[in-house]
Amino acid sequence: MERETIKKDKTVIGITGGVGSGKSRILEILKNDYGADIILADDTAKELMEPGKPGLAKVVEDLGDSFIRGDGSVDRAALAELIFRDHKARKTVNDIIHPMAWATIEEKIQRSSSLLVIMETAIVEEKMHDICQEIWYVYTSRENRIQRLMENRGYTRQKCEAIMDSQWSDSQFRSVCQRQIDNNGSIEETRNQIREIIKEL
User: What residues bind ATP, as annotated (predicted)?
Assistant: First the structure.
């Protein structure tokens, strides 16, 4: 497929949506059809918690090494348990990793040679509005999301609903996003929506 064209100035778009909404489909279209550079906020934060990285070093300095394995790698289950049961530990990790993650994301955007950079995140924070020209909300109905999660990840309906109930509502997402992509239909329907939006950028 011939790659779609975009304007010649670098454009940074934020992509968000609830679990099971199909954000990965949107990212795939933007990468394959428009040559977009994709930055995943969660992965950026995780990278900072790898051995030898400054984020992990600072967290260990403040919280100790109870979640570090013998080989120096992070026992993520142990870290998750620590964060879950200890509010202060959770705040400490967030206070360390958050600023580092945003700084790393901004560096990745600056280094990108692509004219279109996409930042994907499950949570819309104020900083996103400073970095992104627009934020797009990927909308999929609750029932379709549940079916996708049950089929693709093997979740129970109860688990799906518990996760969704802990996340933002559709109205909350829409209140902070400039555009919405309806991802309930076929990939071609989604691709057509994206094509029309890109024309307007």
Answer: 20-25
141-195: pLDDT as tens digits: 999 999 999 999 999 999 999 999 999 999 999 999 999 999 999 999 999 999 9
Q: Give the residue with greater pLDDT, 70 vs 26.
A: 26
The answer to the question of whether 25 is labelled as a binding residue is yes
Helices (H), 53-141: 54-63, 76-85, 87-111, 126-131
Tokens of 201: 């950028």
64 labeled binding residue: no
Confidence of residue 8 (pLDDT cuts 50, 70, 90): low
To the question of whether residue 23 is assigned a binding role by annotation, the answer is yes
User: In a 3-state reduction of DSSP, which class is residue 74?
Assistant: strand
Tens-digit pLDDT profile for residues 76-105: 999 989 988 899 999 999 999 999 999 999
Is 43-113 in the same CATH topology as 11-36+116-201?
yes
112 is in an annotated binding site: no
- In angstroms, the CA 97 to CA 46 distance is 9
Q: What is the pTM of this model?
A: 0.86
